[in-house]
What we know:
This protein is mainly alpha-helical. The protein has a domain at 54-122: Methane Monooxygenase Hydroxylase, Chain G, domain 1, CATH 1.20.58.1610. It has five helices and no strands. It has helices at 2-6, 8-31, 39-42, 61-85, 87-115.
Amino acid sequence: MEQSTEYLGVLVTFLIATGIAGAILFLNKILGPKNKQSVEKSEPFECGLSQAAPVGGRLSVKFYLVAMLFILFDVEIVWLFPWAVILKDLKWAGITVMFSFLALLALGFVYAWKKGALEWER
């Protein structure tokens, strides 16, 4: 009996969240604006400008380069957060390893900067 009461709070929270979400969707359907679809609204949105390239068109190589750099520095954050959490347990060895990792990333960043990978020209 005690174990079922532990999940009672989770069940009540789930039911309340589902009820609120359902009420919001229902009220939006009833009270929301009734806009008709137009040709402009069905086109892909591209910064408020008219479509520059056909859908599925080719992207610039610079786009992929910037995306790869973003992933590189995103992975850096994935490594930094757990390291910061257990920093006390790692002591100086962990600090040395992480700063050597950061130095390697900084070296890659400087290389990309010098090669002009961070300059976006039209």
